[in-house]
């Protein structure tokens, strides 16, 4: 096992001076306030930092975990043995290409992107104004709201693979589907995204965004840590059974508590941390809810949130449940 001796730490600090943190604690930083620590995290400022970090990790066989705001991630409770690469505000510059096209670095804060587009009268992505993530995380998840997704406005996505090579994909090559992109199955770091919008009126756009934010404040639990919707809303099953929250509520799970985790009494598609929740509490709730909704409706809910294991490998929550929970208790 390699890992984080002084030589490795010094090299990472040389590539990313002033952007390296030791003992990076997920429980105090992730939106769910759950997780152990990683020995080392780097916050790159430029694409060349990312290329250099990827080449270095490849050379010394160091697993890399890329994260943004951690608003869609559940972390293992113990040590996460990977070099964490966190994209954030230092790597978030927008470049206007023309009146309706903009390229933005992947660490950009999504509500800030929505505000930037509104100020420039570039309309179409007002629905992302309340999503607490980075642009890279949003594109990787093909996130959005009001049944829309960022992918609809993507022209190209640039990423850096494990060898440090840069790849540019067109929207078609990103394989966008509902809350899915090709990046879910690739070990690549999204570095920038080119978006094409329509011309819009900034005043009307601002009003639309205010309305969206007001409606989210009323609908979603805000007081306790959570990761947004746990399960994806499947458009096909929506017509028959309604949204996942309604299915989970009908199956009797609203308000149910497991350890420190609870199915939100406000919105059953949210799991909140009431204090001291562990990853195992959340994963076992997810597994049991899926089974129970399946027994009632014949439909298997697909989790939206993702789980990071002790090696820094990212799983969908259903894979994680069957691998780390069901097998352990079965
Ligand atoms: C209160 C709340 C409300 C939410 N509402 C919504 C909503 O309305 N719609 C919605 O779609 N989501 C919603 N979410 C979920 C979440 O905010 C989004 O999925 C967001 O886009 C995740 O971005 P992130 O930067 O936090 O990614 P993270 O959670 O840090 O990472 C998510 C995944 O993306 C990968 N990733 C992150 N950055 C990159 C990158 N640069 N390159 C490659 N892979 C990367 C990570 O490895 C991980 O697999 C909500 C979450 C919360 C807490």
TrEMBL record:
<feature type="active site">
    <location>
        <position position="304"/>
    </location>
</feature>
<dbReference type="InterPro" id="IPR003170">
    <property type="entry name" value="MurB"/>
</dbReference>
<dbReference type="InterPro" id="IPR006094">
    <property type="entry name" value="Oxid_FAD_bind_N"/>
</dbReference>
<comment type="pathway">
    <text>Cell wall biogenesis; peptidoglycan biosynthesis.</text>
</comment>
<protein>
    <recommendedName>
        <fullName>UDP-N-acetylenolpyruvoylglucosamine reductase</fullName>
        <ecNumber>1.3.1.98</ecNumber>
    </recommendedName>
</protein>
<keyword id="KW-0274">FAD</keyword>
<comment type="similarity">
    <text>Belongs to the MurB family.</text>
</comment>
<keyword id="KW-0961">Cell wall biogenesis/degradation</keyword>
<dbReference type="InterPro" id="IPR036318">
    <property type="entry name" value="FAD-bd_PCMH-like_sf"/>
</dbReference>
<keyword id="KW-0132">Cell division</keyword>
<feature type="active site" description="Proton donor">
    <location>
        <position position="229"/>
    </location>
</feature>
<dbReference type="InterPro" id="IPR036635">
    <property type="entry name" value="MurB_C_sf"/>
</dbReference>
<dbReference type="GO" id="GO:0051301">
    <property type="term" value="P:cell division"/>
</dbReference>
<keyword id="KW-0521">NADP</keyword>
<keyword id="KW-0285">Flavoprotein</keyword>
<dbReference type="InterPro" id="IPR011601">
    <property type="entry name" value="MurB_C"/>
</dbReference>
<keyword id="KW-0963">Cytoplasm</keyword>
<comment type="function">
    <text>Cell wall formation.</text>
</comment>
<dbReference type="InterPro" id="IPR016169">
    <property type="entry name" value="FAD-bd_PCMH_sub2"/>
</dbReference>
<keyword id="KW-0133">Cell shape</keyword>
<keyword id="KW-0573">Peptidoglycan synthesis</keyword>
<dbReference type="Pfam" id="PF01565">
    <property type="entry name" value="FAD_binding_4"/>
</dbReference>
<dbReference type="InterPro" id="IPR016166">
    <property type="entry name" value="FAD-bd_PCMH"/>
</dbReference>
<dbReference type="GO" id="GO:0008360">
    <property type="term" value="P:regulation of cell shape"/>
</dbReference>
<dbReference type="GO" id="GO:0071555">
    <property type="term" value="P:cell wall organization"/>
</dbReference>
<dbReference type="GO" id="GO:0008762">
    <property type="term" value="F:UDP-N-acetylmuramate dehydrogenase activity"/>
</dbReference>
<dbReference type="GO" id="GO:0005829">
    <property type="term" value="C:cytosol"/>
</dbReference>
<keyword id="KW-0131">Cell cycle</keyword>
<dbReference type="GO" id="GO:0071949">
    <property type="term" value="F:FAD binding"/>
</dbReference>
<dbReference type="Pfam" id="PF02873">
    <property type="entry name" value="MurB_C"/>
</dbReference>
<feature type="active site">
    <location>
        <position position="179"/>
    </location>
</feature>
<dbReference type="InterPro" id="IPR016167">
    <property type="entry name" value="FAD-bd_PCMH_sub1"/>
</dbReference>
<dbReference type="GO" id="GO:0009252">
    <property type="term" value="P:peptidoglycan biosynthetic process"/>
</dbReference>
<keyword id="KW-0560">Oxidoreductase</keyword>
<feature type="domain" description="FAD-binding PCMH-type">
    <location>
        <begin position="34"/>
        <end position="200"/>
    </location>
</feature>
């Amino acid at each position: 096992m390699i890992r984080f001796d002084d030589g490795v730490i010094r090299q990472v600090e040389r590539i990313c001076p002033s952007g390296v943190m030791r003992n990076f604690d997920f429980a105090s930083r992730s939106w769910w306030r759950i997780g152990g620590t990683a020995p080392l995290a780097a916050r790159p400022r430029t694409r060349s930092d990312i290329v250099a970090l990827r080449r270095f990790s490849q050379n010394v066989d160091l697993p890399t975990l890329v994260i943004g705001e951690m608003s869609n991630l559940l972390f293992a409770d113990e040590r996460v043995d990977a070099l964490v690469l966190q994209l954030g505000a230092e790597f978030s510059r927008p470049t206007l290409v023309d009146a309706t096209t903009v390229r933005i670095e992947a660490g950009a804060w999504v509500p800030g992107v929505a505000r930037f587009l509104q100020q420039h009268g570039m309309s179409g992505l007002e629905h992302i104004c309340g999503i607490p993530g980075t642009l890279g995380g949003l594109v990787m998840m093909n996130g959005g709201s009001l049944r829309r997704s960022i992918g609809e406005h993507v022209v190209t996505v640039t990423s850096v693979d494990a060898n440090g090579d840069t790849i540019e994909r067109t929207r078609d090559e990103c394989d966008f589907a509902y809350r899915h992109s090709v990046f879910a199955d690739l070990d690549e770091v999204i570095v920038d995204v080119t978006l094409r919008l329509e011309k819009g009126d900034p005043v009307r756009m601002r009003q639309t965004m205010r309305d969206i934010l007001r409606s989210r404040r009323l609908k979603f639990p805000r007081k306790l840590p959570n990761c947004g919707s746990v399960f994806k809303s499947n458009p096909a099953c929506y017509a028959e059974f309604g949204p996942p929250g309604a299915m989970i509520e009908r199956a009797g799970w609203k308000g149910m508590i497991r350890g420190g985790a609870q199915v939100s009494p406000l919105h059953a598609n949210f799991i909140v941390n009431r204090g001291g929740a562990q990853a195992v509490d959340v994963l076992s709730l997810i597994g049991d809810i899926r089974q129970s909704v399946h027994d009632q409706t014949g439909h298997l809910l697909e989790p939206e949130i993702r789980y990071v294991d002790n090696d820094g490998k990212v799983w969908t929550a259903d894979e994680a449940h069957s691998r780390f929970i069901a097998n352990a208790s079965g």
